[in-house]
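Chapter summary example.
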Amino acid sequence: MIKTTLTTTVPAALIALALASAASAEIRIGASVSATGPAAFLGDPEAKTLEMLVEDLNAKGGINGEEIALVLYDDGGDANKARTFATRLIEDDEVQAIIGGTTTGTSMSILSVAEDAEIPFISLAGAIDIIDPVKPYTFKTPHTDRMACQKIFEDMQKRDIAKIGMISGTDGFGASMQAQCKEVVGDYGIEIVADETYDPKDADMTAQLTKIKNAEGVQAVLNPGFGQGPSIVTRNYKQLAIDLPLYQSHGVASDGFIELAGPEAAEGVRLPGTALLVAELLPEGDAQKPVVTAYKAAFEEKTKTPVGTFGGYAHDAFLILTDAIIRAGSTEPGAIRDAIEATKGLAGTTGIYSFTPENHLGLDLSAFRMLEIKGGDWTLVE
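The structure predicted for these 382 residues follows.
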């Protein structure tokens, strides 16, 4: 049974229906994602993925004969609404776990509520602050921004790049990744010789990119950011004819980025991404290939739209949660939490998850694939 409420203002009748739906099923999963608003290109596929997976699992008999009741809210990317919905999911809908937090801001709001209530929460956002320091009930599926920096700097090392410019978004994701990159860049013998920022609402980054272009010795440019900002940076980069490698973050690892930036401008851009974007290029025997190809086929058949990294984060969160419920043999939140933390070698679309009490991400750098855009499509660098 699925109860979906994808509006930011919820009528009383719909709330009552959600409560009735939740009450009729033993296993109640809550979700708050940004299906509309500035992060809709992330949250919309997340919402569609969760609905599809719940429908499919229930059609197969649910878990031990019990159907899943999904109570899904759209927070529109608003951290205050995410906090409100998290409270509603716990106090009114009485869910046993929560998936969501499309952005870092909404995730931080949800986790504060979930931790207080001791309800397992699996975030879909990238910032390392979500799981570092470790919080007892909070986990997440995307790689951290620190890991993205490390993967990028590894690739730069291989290309003998020693001096770079950075242009970062000032939103939560961009600021967090900028800080993480600065913390680890010295480990790779790379120097930041130009450091610029932009507001996510800016429509032109030519001034900042010109400063970077003129910086002495700059050999490549890194853009920590997500949303529309990186696509504007990429277009401006092409317009300024900057003949240097351009790296983007995992926050724009989707076909939507190529479309917004334009295939010509995006040509040659590199970023760390997931196996999902290059499913057909994975070798036979790759542990992720079966789950990646199955999800890609199901999502594209169901939605008639290309699969993307962000829906994959929701896929993995649902996989982790349902796997934990089966192994726990219980829907008690504490038992689910313990089972998630004991997850070992679970192959998802983003990587192979193995959690510990000290690690609530469960992925290492091998889960990232370095990708390059060629001819308007994704290719594997390695």
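To summarize the output: The chain has two domains: 2-144+291-367, 145-278+368-380.
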